[in-house]
Amino acid sequence: MLFDFEKILQVINFFFLALALLAVYYYAYRLQVELRRSEFLKKEAQKYQDLVNATTEGVLQFDEEGHFTILNQSGARCLGYEDPQEILNDSITVYHFLVDPDKKKQLCQIVKKNGELKNHIVQIKKKNGEVIYVSLSLHARVHGDGNPILYEGIFHDVTHQVVLEEELWNYSTRLEKLVQEKTDEILQLERKRFHLEKMAAIGQMAATLVHEIRSPMSSMKMALTLFQKKKEIFLEKERRVMELAVQECQRIEAMLKDVLDFARPQEIRLVAQDLHDVLDQVVERMKPAFQGKKIHFKKDWDSRMPLVLVDAERLLQVMVNLLQNAIDAVMPEKGEIQLRTQYIEKDGICRIETIDNGMGIPEEDLPKVFDPFFSKKPGGTGLGLSVVQKIVEAHRGRIQIESTVGEGTLVRIELPVESPKFHFQ
Fold first, then answer.
1. In DSSP terms, which residues pair with 152 in a beta bridge?
2. Fewest CB within a 10 Å sphere: which of 203, 275, 282, 347?
3. How far apart are CA 282 and CA 59, in angstroms?
4. Fold for the domain defined by 57-157
């Protein structure tokens, strides 16, 4: 049987041609499928990009060096840019925007440790230099070895919220402080009320006791005085005992007067007075106390002093007490005492000062000198300066004492010049 090789060759050629056409058709079909798939992916990518750009959250992705790989429109605007490409096409890194450079290390450590970062408040600086607060959430895409490849997440501006929280915290702090101040003020007033009630009770009791003691004391003193008038019938020793008894009666009467002055309310009758006339009366009354002592006394009056609203009798009582304390404090042979005044026009006050070069008051005793019954003077009641303070405060004034052991003491009284309603701050 003879083969027609020419026909066989034609069949083979036709087969390969058909195979080639089939391959071309197949690859054309695959190309069409890939093109459709690519178009679909492009559309999906565009949808994703549109969705990312439409969100109000800033969306970002960056590598280990901080270079942006993704940034949406909201993120760019939050950073102060109109177009994300301004950042994506530049070499600007995420860390460029951090106000605190140390935050870079802190943020990376948190993400590496926890795998993510949630709602972390960070201060950033916008393109125009404005500093804002953002809430940042991140997570990391990692290699097989666990090291991050990329960081991606979202952020948004929370400056208004942070400012409001700070204002709220400041307001809360101020409110707490105000409440504490008012509470302390109420407690202080309550303590003062309790003290006044206690002092009123003590005063009432003291007044009763003084009255009960003063009557028999007066009788005893009167009897001793009568006996003294008939001293010729007594021996010298007996006469000395009677003189001592009379002196002790006088001392007890003085102590009773101090107790009464301390216990009773200080009623002040304010009258415009020449302050220096009142002080001259004090000096005149104290002359017997200076007799027999080599004390150098000096007075220094401010000639600008106007009339002052004072109760002359009460002020006299105050200054006699202070001068007597100065006399008791100085050495009889070389004592120096100064009484001076000063008008402080800008503050509307007059100042009266007694200065001595006496033994001084120990520093630990200074806070207690106005306390009732505190005294280191032999035979003292400890009420003199308490009464002085009450009288000065009844004038809406204040009294201060400065003293150094071995150098002396300064007592300063400040009184309002014009109005009895004047208050010291």
1. 61, 139
2. 347
3. 88
4. Beta-Lactamase (3.30.450)
| Beta strands at 335-344 and 295-300: parallel, antiparallel or unpaired | parallel
- Burial annotation 45-70 (CB, 10 A radius, 16+ → b, else e): eeeeeeebeeeebbbbbbeeebbbee
Contact 265, 393 (CB under 8 A): no
How far is residue 73's CA from residue 61's CA, in Å, rounded to a whole number? 13
Homologous superfamily, domain 266-416: Histidine kinase-like ATPase, C-terminal domain (3.30.565.10)
Residue 335 DSSP label: E
Domain ranges across the chain? 20-54, 57-157, 184-259, 266-416
- DSSP designation for 417: S
Mean pLDDT of the chain: 82
As a whole number, mean pLDDT of residues 403-421 equals: 84
pTM for the full predicted model: 0.49
Q: What is the pLDDT of residues 166-196, one digit of tens each?
A: 999 999 999 999 999 999 989 988 887 887 7
At residue 50, the pLDDT reads: 60
Distance CA 392, CA 388 (A): 6
